[in-house]
Design a protein that fits this description.
single chain, about 350 residues, alpha/beta, 12-stranded mixed sheet, about 35% helix, globular, disordered N terminus, binds S-adenosylmethionine
């Protein structure tokens, strides 16, 4: 006995061993999801994500040799799967701009332990690529579509891209089995909130799931203001008034979207309230940038360089030890402590870290 406490009390040994095995962070959160960005480039210039004034002709995107190869990505995914990751989402930038992406999908589909392999895309190249992606082993797809109104959508993507081509992508994805498709609509007050109900009606009665997302203060280039956020509760009320909805249970602990069902049996929607009702306490996601930096929060200022670890000849055991130490030290809860003081902190851009 030292200082009146037993040895096991002092070292907290009994409590920390299970955490080491199951990879819990400082708040007891497991690592379950890995989001992998495969490029920082995008063919859209959404005003809230990659505004042209910043991401213009002179913007320097990552050089080819800095990007992780498909082999490097798969290696990290396999080690992460051994530590509890069951869900992998490919993202970007626009992931379908990465050449031969289906080869990576094929490699990840073969990783033991990854039960859910999905991808988030702006849909612009989906009609062309959906079949190859599905054949390679992709299970599902999430397509971003901020409005069905062409004028509103074109103003938001800022490259004059029409709604019809995204809808075509969703249709083809559905036909090749990447269904149900999740459709992400970021809602910005005064920009597209008047088109929320149209979006819901379009997919009501289909297997596809629209997810309405509160506009977030990711990165530092979009001039985010709290006034631009339409709270999820307001979105739910707006929908409930025309298409009555009722809450559903989460599919699994830590699920991002709050699920709602149409009372008339017309399917399901999701509302993602990371600003007004943060879900940090159950966040089980890590994000890998296209150049191999691992981030433990969407709002992080810095990441951990896994490319350096890989390219310095590390074994899988070394990589596993690195992931364990990163996750054990994790204490991020940005959305829960968001305030005027945190809004101006340096944060990585969404296009770099992956959505
Ligand atoms: N290019 C792909 C796409 O458009 O889906 C994948 C990358 S994108 C960064 C991933 C998702 O993040 C998209 O659904 C996009 O609308 C969303 N997003 C980007 N900036 C956002 C912000 N400030 N607030 C909320 N969602 C945002």
């Amino acid at each position: 006995m030292v200082g009146g406490r037993s040895r096991s009390e002092r070292t907290a040994f009994p409590a920390s061993v299970p955490d080491l095995i199951s990879m819990k962070d400082t708040m007891g959160r497991p690592l379950h999801d890995l989001r992998i960005s495969v490029t920082d480039r995008c063919n859209f210039r959404c005003r809230y994500c990659m505004p042209k004034e910043v991401f213009g002709r002179d913007y320097e995107f990552l050089a080819r040799e800095l990007l992780l190869s498909f082999e490097e990505i798969s290696r990290i995914a396999a080690v992460a799967a051994g530590l509890g990751v069951e869900k992998v989402r490919i993202t970007g930038g626009e992931p379908l701009l990465r050449k031969d992406l289906e080869l990576l999908i094929g490699m990840l589909a073969g990783v033991e332990g990854i039960a859910d392999l999905t991808l988030t895309t702006n849909g612009s190249l989906l009609a062309r690529k959906a079949e190859a992606l599905a054949a390679a082993g992709l299970r599902r797809v999430t397509v971003s579509l901020d409005s069905l109104d062409d004028e509103v959508f074109k103003a938001m993507n800022d490259v004059d891209f029409p709604v019809d081509r995204v809808l075509e992508g969703i249709e083809v994805a559905s036909q090749v089995g990447l269904s149900p498709v999740k459709v992400n609509m970021v809602v910005k007050r005064g920009v597209n909130d008047h088109t929320i109900v149209d979006m819901a009606r379009r997919f009501h009665g289909t297997p596809h799931i629209v997810r309405f997302i509160e506009y977030m203060d990711v990165g530092t280039t979009n001039g985010w203001r709290l006034d631009d956020v339409v709270p999820g509760s307001e979105i739910a009320e707006m929908l409930n008034a025309v298409l009555p909805i009722e809450p559903l249970d989460a599919n699994y602990p830590g699920e991002v979207a709050k699920r709602w069902a149409y009372r008339d049996g017309g399917g399901e929607i999701g509302i993602i309230t990371s600003v007004t009702q943060p879900f940090c306490s159950s966040c089980s996601r890590a994000r890998l940038s296209a150049e191999g930096m691992l981030y433990t929060c969407l709002f992080a200022s810095w990441g951990h360089d896994l490319r350096e670890v890989l390219r310095s000849g590390a074994s899988d055991g070394d990589l596993e030890a690195k992931l364990r130490s990163i996750w054990h030290a994790r204490g991020d809860r940005y959305s829960e402590i968001r305030s005027d003081a945190t809004v101006d902190l340096p944060k990585v851009e969404m296009s770099y870290i992956g959505g």
